[in-house]
Amino acid sequence: MDSIETMQERQKHIRNFSIVAHIDHGKSTISDRILEATHTVTEREMQDQLLDTMDLERERGITIKMNAVEVHYQAKNGETYIFHLVDTPGHVDFSYEVSRSLAAADGAILVVDAAQGVEAQTLANVYLAIENDLEILPVINKIDLPAADPEAVRTEIEDVIGIDASEAVLASAKKGIGIPELLEQIVTKIPAPIGDLTAPLQALIFDSAYDSYKGVILTVRVKNGIIKAGDKIRFMNSGAEYEVTEVGVNSPHAIKRDYLMAGDIGYVAASIKNIRDARPGDTITNVQRPAEEALPGYQPMTPMVYSGLYPTDNSKYNDLREALEKLQLNDASLEFEPETSQALGFGFRTGFLGLLHMDVIQERLEREFDMELITTAPSVTYHAYLADGEMIEVDNPSEMPDAGKIKSIEEPYVYAQIIVPNDYVGAVMELAQRKRGEFDTMDYLDTTRVNVKYHIPLSEIIFDFFDKLKSSTRGYASLDYEIEGYRQSDLIKIDVLLNGDKVDALSFIVHKDFAQERGRIITAKLKQIIPRRNFEIPVQAAVGAKIISRSTIKAYRKDVTSKIHTGDPDRRAKLLDKQKKGKKRMKSVGTVDVPQEAFMAVLKAEDDTEFAKGANH
Ligand SMILES: Nc1nc2c(ncn2[C@@H]2O[C@H](COP(=O)(O)OP(=O)(O)OP(=O)(O)O)[C@@H](O)[C@H]2O)c(=O)[nH]1
Fold first, then answer.
1. Whose CA, among 239, 279, 337, 566, lies 20 to 30 Å from 501?
2. 609 marked among binding-site residues
């Protein structure tokens, strides 16, 4: 192994940094340019958004998992520096990953779009960086855009965020402008890590992934000491002990190293089979020479939305459990527990950080594990207070106790900040009000833009608030929110009955004022979605024993299967194919076939409500 002097010299040349930005301001493109400029990847390997390794990330153009990469940079002073670059996601659902990565870094590159300026997540992310005492390097990106106004953005960064932006790098990641300057600033402005090479080992786990050969692979920031293959290590919170089989760095492919030392960011493998032994936030120490204290960890992440996941084929229940367990290894914020539905059989109640997270998990289950799923409408967690004062948490609407037994219900509220040009303040307020928002304050960022702050029920935010916000402000508004606690609301449960039978998976919870309308819309919607049978199917919405609306799915009049036998063979094949595909997402509930779409109709119903309202005005 290298001498302490060599290590000390190397430590002075390390720069650990993260890149933070509002979504789409260009983090991933800047990371790519850094990899390119430092010749970390060959040209052949270079492809756009190299760090976004999941297919899903590429297709959607978003970063979901962060990635830590080591690159070597030869600076103008002739010396070679080791950069550990941690890419972070920008979407609000994944802000948890941002805060985790920031705890591993000493500096943060703050990317701001030269045409858009400071947005809601720019603020949220940069404040996280400031809280973590990171040196912040502002970069004004996309200066090639015709609408770019770098000087105005520079002033905005100074006025709104309150950091010095006089030396902000003016860049176009797309055209490679400003990258050399940025690399130099990383060397001169971001401090080298401080950490005692001779102290007992303390390494912070900030990510983990599962490898079928090597077991759980941990991404760590070594704060003090040294870790190498053969070391006996202990996880200070879980108490589990393992022997290190391999350490190394990603560059961006895994490269084995003899050791990782204080200041390094790299990976550790120790044939760990159980993710619970080594959760992100835990500290690794050496069994022979343990550290006295664990490093400060992370706040555990609580899911914001829950939905039921059921295999379309009941025999695939165990496969679904296995798939969820595997995904959990890679995604510590995913939670699930078994759940039974009279209508859908055996499945899992699954907790997500938000709707995008839910979407991503569902798609990964389908693609990577070949699962066919029925998903119930997402729900937040309600607090129901019973007459005797007992509080129960309800994350599945069908489990909400009868109104007669409940004294009151509370729902989660968020504090939302919406940054928007002056002209759209009216539209934002109208939307927030319609979503039961309570106005807090409004701050002017400059003469043209405002930060509008509201208290809004989380259930209203997660469904379609963001889409509505974008469409009512022509894409100009940006949103950030944080959970602020529970408030009492006048909520009731609506049950749905098909052919006289209550279908538990279709129950939902609404504010009393919207109950009548939502009941009417859901029955109308289900009438459209549920396929006809050779008998009449009544669709009813009920509050307790009281039916509040009803529609009827008419019986077949003629045999539609005869259609398949007519026409050209191509058309027939297509029809059969379509039927097969449609069937996949169908669940028989009693005598009625209920397609996947029906379980999401609750969300759709909301769209229609607003549409109807809009039409009236
Ligand atoms: N014109 C122009 N477009 C750019 C520039 N940098 C990035 N883009 C484009 O902006 C879009 C978003 O860039 P990304 O790098 O994916 O943004 P991001 O911030 O990483 O986004 P997330 O990963 O989703 O958080 C892409 O279409 C890029 O091609 C630039 O300097 N100029």
1. 337
2. no
